[in-house]
Design brief:
alpha/beta; Rossmann fold; three-stranded parallel beta sheet; two-stranded parallel ribbon; 8 helices; 5 strands; about 10% strand; globular
Length: about 160
């Protein structure tokens, strides 16, 4: 099923393996799985800036991190890994991740959601992503350079 994608770009979190060195094997596991699926992919260096990948992406698969907010700007489906065997404490917000991202906790669940959302064109959280962009990023303010205008109006004493 993954072979239907033109190209898959992968960037691991810069801290992968810092606390648990065994996690460094994840790159090899991803590499093996995608080769078996006959997927055109590239695993980018962990130091590559996320914004360089976001520009051309049409879906995001990530964990709970700042990448979720960064990915919102591209207005593409976001699939977020949340382990079902650990309690994850999140800050309270008017918009939870469940409101605008597709939560999964296993590879099978991820593939099912990708098939439904991408292959079957059932992106049922698209409207909520728009709301999240406004709530988290201030979409209208960003497009209208409100922040820059405020900075320009600051008078240096």
């Amino acid at each position: 099923m993954l072979s239907r994608f033109n190209e898959v770009a992968i960037k691991l979190h810069p801290w992968v393996g810092k606390r648990d060195i065994s996690l460094l094997k994840i790159k090899d596991e991803i590499d093996k799985t995608l080769k078996e699926q006959d997927v055109d992919y590239k695993i980018h260096d962990k130091t590559m800036p996320v914004e360089d990948l976001i520009k051309g992406a049409n879906l995001f698969i990530c964990d709970i991190s700042a990448v979720i907010s960064e990915s919102l700007a591209a207005n593409a489906p976001i699939f977020v890994y949340v382990p079902d065997d650990k309690e994850i404490k999140l800050t309270k917000s008017k918009m939870s991740y469940e409101d605008y991202t597709y939560i999964y906790s296993s590879v099978d669940e991820l593939l099912e959601k990708i098939e439904d959302v991408i292959i079957n064109n059932n992106d049922y959280l698209a409207d909520n992503r728009e709301k999240a962009m406004e709530y988290i990023l201030g979409k209208d303010e960003t497009l209208n350079d409100v922040f820059i205008t405020h900075l320009e109006n600051i008078k240096v004493s």
